[in-house]
Amino acid sequence: GFFVLDFMNAPKVMEQVMANPGMNVIARNGIRFEICKEIENKKVVKYITVADQGKVFNYKESVELLDRFAIQRMLQITGFKVLLVAGDYRLNVIKQQSDRCIFICKK
Question: What is the mean pLDDT of the chain?
Answer without folding.
Answer: 94
